[in-house]
Amino acid sequence: MEFGAFLKRKRLEMNISAREMCRLIDVSNGYMSQVENGKIETPRRELLLKIMDVLHIEPSELEPFGFQFRENEDIQSEHTKIQRSRVQGLIEKELAICSEAELEAILTLIREFPELYKMLSNKEQYTRAKEMIGEFKTFMEFMEFKRKQSS
């Protein structure tokens, strides 16, 4: 089996559409099609790491295709950098629409609940952390409303 066919099989096993895969790894549909169809044999290292992350591919699974990695530590470190970058982008988008009071509330929340901060840094737990912040934001809005009513 060729590398591109292997990637396509892994993608389909995970029920990820070609379009969604391209969005997740930030490449064009045409580029991904060329990789899966063997027209591009070796994607650049950063892209390969993103693909491995999305498709949950272990380094040992890539050895038959001639890919060699120094140590798992190197890969985990690079995976972590990619995940942090992705999470930071998501957080920055959310924070851009927050008011000063909401930002202060989020800072308080993170200071008071360090486990929430850890959740924000974890790709799998990011959605739940975001929901918790939304709930906290709603609570803060309610408290602000109550405060204004009593004034």
TrEMBL record:
Residues 7-62 form the HTH cro/C1-type domain. Pfam families: HTH_31. GO terms for molecular function: DNA binding. Signal peptide: none annotated. Gene3D superfamilies: lambda repressor-like DNA-binding domains. This is Helix-turn-helix domain-containing protein. It comes from Mesobacillus persicus.
